[in-house]
Design brief:
The complex is a heterodimer of chains A (267) and B (339). Chain A is α/β, with parallel strands linked by helices and 267 residues long. Chain A is built from eleven helices and ten strands. In chain A, the strands form two sheets. Chain A has a six-stranded mixed beta sheet, with helices on both faces. Chain A has a four-stranded antiparallel beta sheet with strand order 2-1-4-5, with helices on one face. In chain B, helix 3 packs across helix 12 and helix 6 crosses helix 7. The chains are: A alpha/beta (267), B mainly alpha (339).
């Protein structure tokens, strides 16, 4: 359901991002509740990825505030934000190329593992115990997504769709409260997209987390999201359920373009 | 596999015991060969520790000789000029020497680690090749500073360092270095170093503090470079700032690349290979039946290292042993394939 009142998990208030003279995102308000499945759409260059980057700490918003689970997170470094409970995937898959499928997910357990440098050197029973626990949890996650049989395979030799799924599994391994998916359908064929729709619903139900989906593919977003934000030129032009968004004239204009005459005067 | 064979501590213990046993026979080894054997162990320490920085964590340090110099000078200065009191208090016997030697080695390592921290914290925050440039400059600065330090006799070199290094200490510490790097990498924590190498942005997004990881790897590597420097100083008993120049740093980098970045066993083997080759070339340079130009090349090791590097990059860019998982060394660095 919609986030209303104080219950919002993620709350962006009047966030603006400027790069020199260019305003990438302007005065954006956005709220995501703890169990929401929200879509963020917009034409190329609308500022969708910039929104992702300010939420995950890659950029700091020029002005405005970002609150996550009651804490201000704007300007924190990305790893601190990951600790707060935000995990993400990347538009162009960013797996750890030299690591196996298993190790890619295991690496995400760095967030919670208690052992550090000294424990790894002393290798006392407690260290082995924790490693066994991590091992079991990684395998459990991999099995949920049917990747367990690829355990020791180098991640780069997985199929494209499997690499996308592995990236999601890796993000889930940090046990996030909010999962950000950056164009997960990019480069997928229609059958894989079908599977992705099911996967996103499954993740939301199984892990009971909030999901923010940035996506180009309108069909996918309309089919899976409960609420959609539409960005154009860094400004929010519409917000609402899929039904309302498809009928919104501003959205249609942004996606299909204006009348040629107007476009020229605009330029 | 048998659980005993997989226990890294047991391997370490076995290696230390073996070093002790071999050390018993060092009296019957020709002095020159003994020194070469010790140099091999020192180079193993240098190469394996640099591999933690350059191979596993994917940073590029060109200043390992500088940290080695710090360790060498600090430990040599302490044991030559400052340890008489301690030696006397402990009775001056075998035990006293061991205590002093271990003490000065650790002090040398810590001094190098501290220098690593000072150099690493500002430069590792940045991405890319900044570290290479900063460490390159740092190595030269250290050399020049030592050249102008009167307490250690400046450019004319520091002599009269007690000859404490034995086959046992050299190989026991080489084994310890390998143990530490291998154990570190073979843990969930240690896999974090590889994620920094593979993709810093993704590693950050997974909650890994990449700057901190880089500093940890760099400082640990520097510590062992300092340790190796201490062993070196107490083996040759004479150290000279010119011995820790850029060429020495390159020599260690070549060992890491030759062995395969991120492959501990390969890198250790490359250290053995290159040290032996370097010594052998001294003989080649004296073979009178060889043409003069060939003897001159053999006399100049830099040319050989450059040729080895070029050949390697063309024929086996992943290193001689790259991609071979041995010793629990973890996955090797993947280089982009030719288009």
């Amino acid at each position: 359901m919609e986030a209303n009142g104080q219950s919002a998990l993620l709350d962006l208030q009047r966030c603006t991002v400027r790069f020199g003279g260019l305003t990438a995102v302007s005065e954006l308000d956005m709220r995501i509740g703890a169990h929401d499945l929200v879509g963020l759409i917009g034409p190329n260059g609308a500022g969708k990825t910039t929104v992702f980057n300010i939420v995950t700490g890659v950029y700091k918003p020029t002005t405005g505030s970002i609150t996550f689970a009651g804490e201000r997170i704007a300007g924190l470094r990305p790893h601190r934000i990951a600790h707060k409970g935000i995990a993400r995937t990347f538009q162009n898959i960013r797996l750890f190329a030299s690591l196996s499928v298993f190790d890619n997910v295991r690496a995400a357990f760095n967030l919670r593992c208690k052992h550090t440098f000294v424990h790894a050197l002393l290798r006392l029973p407690a260290f082995y115990k924790e490693e066994r626990e991590i091992d079991a949890q990684v395998m459990e996650l991999l099995d949920i997504f049917d990747l367990g049989r690829f355990r020791d395979v180098p991640c780069k030799s997985l199929s494209y769709g499997d690499q996308r799924r592995l990236e999601i599994v890796r993000a889930l391994a940090t046990r996030p409260k909010l999962l950000l998916l950056d164009e997960p359908a990019a480069g997928m064929n229609p059958i894989e997209k079908e599977g992705l729709t099911k996967l996103i619903r499954f993740i939301k139900d199984k892990f009971d987390i909030a999901v923010l989906l940035v996506e180009h593919d309108m069909k996918l977003v309309m089919g899976v999201c409960e609420r959609i934000y539409v960005l154009d030129h860094g400004t929010k032009i519409a917000e609402g359920d899929p039904e309302a968004i498809t009928r919104n004239p501003k959205v249609i204009e942004a996606y299909l373009g204006e009348e040629p005459a107007e476009a020229e005067t605009d330029a | 596999m048998n659980a005993y064979l997989r226990s890294k501590k047991l391997w370490l213990l076995a290696a230390v015991v073996l070093s002790a046993v071999l050390s018993r026979f060092s009296g019957s080894i020709n002095g020159y060969y003994l020194q070469v054997l010790i140099f091999i162990a020192i180079n193993i320490i240098l190469a394996v520790s640099l591999n933690l920085i350059n191979g596993y964590t994917g940073q590029f340090s060109l200043g390992h000789a500088g940290f080695m110099a710090i360790g060498a000078y600090v430990s040599a200065y302490l044991s030559k000029d400052k340890s008489a009191g301690v030696l006397h208090a402990l009775g001056g016997g075998e035990f006293a020497i061991v205590v002093v030697f271990v003490g000065v080695l650790i002090a040398g390592g810590l001094a190098a680690a501290l220098a690593g921290l000072l150099v690493g914290v500002p430069s590792l925050r940045l991405r890319g090749d900044y570290l290479a440039i900063v460490t390159l400059g740092f190595g030269e600065i250290i050399r020049v500073v030592i050249q102008n330090t009167d307490a250690v006799n400046g450019a004319s070199g520091y002599s009269g360092v007690p000859s404490y290094t034995t086959l046992f200490w050299a190989y026991a510490l080489a084994a310890l270095t390998i143990y530490i790097v291998v154990s570190l990498i073979d843990s969930t924590y240690g896999r974090g170093f590889l994620t920094v190498r593979d993709d810093e942005v993704a590693a950050e997004a997974m909650g890994i503090d990449t700057t901190r990881r880089k500093v940890v790897a760099f400082v640990t590597g520097s510590f062992f470079a300092g340790l190796a420097g201490g062993l070196f100083a107490h083996e040759t008993t004479y150290i000279n700032p010119a011995g820790f120049d850029f060429q020495k740093s390159i020599e260690i980098v070549v060992m890491v690349i030759l062995g395969g970045m991120g492959n501990t066993a390969g890198v250790a083997f490359a250290a053995v290979l290159l040290t032996t080759l370097g010594e052998y070339l001294r003989f080649v340079a004296k073979y009178e039946w060889l043409p003069d130009w060939l003897r001159r090349i053999a006399d100049n090791r830099t040319i050989i290292y450059a040729l080895v590097l070029i050949a390697l990059m063309l024929l086996r860019p992943q290193g001689l042993f790259g991609g071979i998982r041995a010793f629990g060394g973890g996955p090797a660095r993947q280089l982009p394939k030719k288009a």
